[in-house]
Design goal:
Elements lengths: L1 E6 L10 H10 L1 E5 L3 H9 L3 E2 L7 H6 L2 H9 L6 E5 L3 H4 L3 H11 L2 E5 L27 H14 L1 H5 L6 H16 L3 H24 L5 H14 L2 H4 L7 H14 L1 H5 L13 H13 L8 H21 L4 H20 L4 H25 L9 H14 L2
Parallel strand pairs: 1-4, 1-5, 2-3, 2-4
Length: about 400
């Protein structure tokens, strides 16, 4: 016997998630608790058979009345059943723990299908979900969740988005946060962090609508993970220094379900990271088990060796695929040297790019002021201009 406890959202048919509807239709019959007539009719029109009079006092049942829940479970038959509750069972159904224990005792299998939490929508469906306040108003976390829900319901562009279509925006917003940090612009950082937070809330809203998870699940999962991985802060474990903390962190991650499923310590580093950043993360993880260079001097010697191998590959054949391989070894060794010197390779490369941009832009502007174009200048003239840019556009 399977019992699905399904969240029905705030009570409007338009806000019933596809995940909840599909889960209920798969069972075919349902006990619905305290649902408004419009939603009850909608469910019946979808072919879901209502199981009336199974719960004598729905209000008491939802609030967690032990006698009411026990009687309900005792009188159940052995056929699969859906139980629909307003909101999200995980946050809006006080009787959930009692019901789960009673069903477990009965031997029933249970599944919980989240729905949109009732707190997500605090006003009637035809009214704005959130007031339209002056720009100076201070909003809460709940306001933000409601704003996102309203956007998904009322904005054509927001309605069309999926997890995949949002990927470019998530990446772009992340880099804009980095740019604000590196530019030491606190006001801009505040705004960019808000844009990044919107992406997290957006993805959580999409998942809520399909009954996968809600933003509350995201917060719970993160909080539990941080507590679990910091026993020296939230427990009685003792960590002597940062190195010991890293080793403890890696050990705790390896003991988690995701960690146990990984075949290598290097798994879990996103392949979508920039090549320099991914290389440095892999090297860091390898170093934590002792696979590392003894000193930066040894890496410098290795870099000279790799440069010699690259030169040899170039001498042999100009289009030899080995040239790219040897060049990759050179870059990987440079990343190793960056790590040994305590420098983030990706950050160093971004700073080098920015420095080149400033100097080259200076060259363009200086040449234009003299009525010239860089493309028309000789190499000696360009070198002279570059040296000037190094001094004046540092």
């Amino acid at each position: 016997m399977l019992v699905r406890i399904i969240g029905l959202g705030p009570g409007d048919p338009e806000l019933l998630t596809l995940g909840s509807l599909d889960a209920m239709k798969a069972v075919g019959r349902a006990v619905t608790l305290l649902v408004p007539p419009e939603l009850a009719k909608y469910l019946a029109d979808q072919g879901i058979k209502p199981m009336r009079d199974r719960v004598r006092d729905p209000s008491l049942f939802v609030r967690g009345g032990a006698d009411e829940i026990t009687r309900f479970v005792d009188e159940m038959d052995d056929a699969d059943l859906a139980i629909g509750v307003l909101g999200n069972p995980l946050s809006d159904f006080a009787g959930l723990p009692l019901l789960l224990r009673a069903l477990e005792k009965r031997g029933a299998r249970t599944e919980i299908i989240p729905g949109m939490p009732r707190a997500t929508l605090s006003a009637a469906i035809n009214m704005p979900l959130v007031p339209l306040p002056p720009a100076s108003s201070h909003h809460t976390w709940d306001d933000l969740i409601e704003i996102m829900a309203r956007l998904r319901r009322s904005c054509p562009w927001d309605r069309e988005q999926t997890h995949r279509t949002l990927i470019p925006y998530l990446i772009e917003e992340t880099y804009e946060v980095v740019e604000a940090i590196e530019g030491d612009n606190e006001a801009e950082l505040c705004g960019e962090l808000g844009d990044l937070l919107l992406q997290i809330v957006f993805h959580s809203q999409l998942a809520t609508e399909t009954g996968k998870f809600s933003v509350a699940d995201v917060v719970d999962g993160l909080s539990n993970k941080m507590i679990r991985r910091h026993p020296h802060v939230f427990g009685d474990a003792v960590v002597e220094d940062v190195d010991a903390q890293w080793k403890n962190w890696e050990q705790l991650k390896a003991e988690e379900a995701v960690g146990k499923a990984r075949k290598s310590r290097l798994d879990g580093i996103p392949k979508q990271l920039g090549a320099l950043q991914r290389g440095q993360r892999m090297q860091e993880k390898a170093a934590r088990v002792g696979f590392d260079w003894a000193s930066a001097r040894d890496i410098v010697d290795k870099l000279a060796e790799e440069m010699a191998e690259l030169a040899e590959a170039r001498r042999e054949k100009q289009d030899d695929p080995r040239i790219r391989e040897e060049l990759g070894d050179v870059l990987f060794t440079v990343v190793n040297l960056s790590r040994a010197l305590g420098i983030d390779a990706e950050t160093a490369m971004r700073e080098a790019n920015e420095k080149f941009y400033k100097r080259f832009s200076f060259m363009e502007a200086h040449a234009q002021k003299d009525g010239k174009q860089l493309v028309d200048m000789s190499l000696d003239e360009l070198e002279e201009l570059w040296q000037l840019a190094k001094v004046q556009a540092a």
